[in-house]
Amino acid sequence: MTQKKKNKGRRNWSPEKGERAMVEGILEGSPDAVGVAVIRLDCGCRKMAAVNRDGDPASEIIMYRDQAESICDQCKKDDGAFMRVTHQFISWVKPEPDEARKKMILAKVLGVQENTTH
Asked: What string of DSSP letters covers 64-95?
């Protein structure tokens, strides 16, 4: 019966759930954060860091890979090079900053002007 419960839990796991849990953990340790920058890489690893209202870091950068003990060998070599980014966004804290501030933070942190929110 224990084996069935373990397998059932794994079927319900998804990368988005793992990512959301990491975002929540980062926010918990970053009281000044207005959001968490999430950078997904082509290898499956992710880089994340909390940002404050001025677009400055509010936490250390965390690199992780879902259900793995460490990041991949490629990330160990190149620290998650920007050329391998597949998706990036900021997961905002509620209440979210106003649109002008969000645009400023996105430009400063991710180098983008569009408002990508999660």
From this structure: EETTSSS--HHHHHHSS-GGGEEEEEEEEPSS
